[in-house]
Amino acid sequence: MNKINNIAIQGIKGSFHHSVAEQYFHNVQSFEECMTFDVLVDSLLKGKTDVAVMAIENSIAGSIIPNYALIDANDLQIIGEYYLDIQHNLMALPGQSIKDVTEVHSHPMALLQCKEFFKSYPNIKLVEARDTADVAKTISEDKISGIAAIASETASRLYNLEVLEESIQTIKHNETHFVIVKKNKNKSTKTDIDKASLKFELDHKRGSLAAILNVLSDCKLNLTKIQSLPKIDTPWKYAFFIDVTFDVYSDYDKAKSIVSIMAENFKILGEYKNAKL
């Protein structure tokens, strides 16, 4: 992959998106901190950044459906993926204990993934915030007592906070699937590609989806993900987003040719290296 000078991440340094960017790429020149995914996509479209890191699914909370729509609507290309083990830590200013905490602020997804932990602390109020690391930074800079953050261990180090409880997520093996996106296709050889993300639409006909799935199976493709999204301008019609893996590119190429004929508005969202082996 060519050298990447500027990467868009959702959130600020210390966020999980920041961790993925550092682990996926090397020698990144700078990060564009984006508080929403809309701003992140806009930074790509306006050429402010070379690539962006975008969460697409969590093993506990499921798909982040609006991000599928963002990738599709803005004709972005998925050029890679990364699975990050998410460890949520409760942190506050040094010298405090969990007994001193009256409120915990964090991203809604983090709060959802840790809700069982807080059943033991009914007096703690849970407050939604824009970003996990941003809360940690604010607590540190403003010296806020009595408020804790749920964030990564990296955030605790960056913003000099003390971890009160480690790994407080309900399900200890908690992964988030991130995709690496850019405006244009990545220059990869066919030997480097063994996964693809595709989109298509189908008529309301009996067996139409089953017929597509049979093609994938006959062509030796493994369906690893299927997600439907409603078409806003056409009530009760859906677009399907799928991920497939394959051992031989020619098998995928054959399936792609057949599906493009059978389905409507067929679109390749990305062809890249499978990270989940």
Structural class: alpha/beta
Look up the CATH topology of the largest domain: D-Maltodextrin-Binding Protein, domain 2
How many separate helices? 8
Radius of gyration in whole Å, from Cα?
21 Å
The helix content is 25-40%
Q: Give the strand content.
A: 25-35%
Q: Any idea of the CATH class of the largest domain?
A: Alpha Beta
Count of all domains: 3
Shape: elongated
User: What's the overall average pLDDT, rounded?
Assistant: 93
Largest sheet: 6 strands, mixed
CATH architecture of the largest domain: 3-Layer(aba) Sandwich
For the record, what is the CATH homologous superfamily label of the largest domain? Periplasmic binding protein-like II
Residue runs with pLDDT of under 50 for 5 or more positions: none
By DSSP, the count of extended strands is: 15
N-to-C SSE string, H for helix and E for strand: EHEHEEHEEEHEHEHEEEHEEHE
The end-to-end span amounts to 20 Å
Strand and helix layout:
Elements: E1 6-10, H1 16-24, E2 30-34, H2 37-45, E3 51-58, E4 62-63, H3 65-73, E5 77-85, E6 89-92, E7 103-106, H4 108-113, E8 125-128, H5 132-142, E9 147-151, H6 153-158, E10 162-165, E11 175-182, E12 195-201, H7 208-218, E13 222-230, E14 238-245, H8 249-262, E15 264-272
Parallel strand pairs: 1-2, 1-3, 7-8, 7-9
Antiparallel strand pairs: 3-4, 3-11, 5-11, 6-9, 6-10, 12-14, 12-15, 13-14
Helix pairs in contact: 7-8
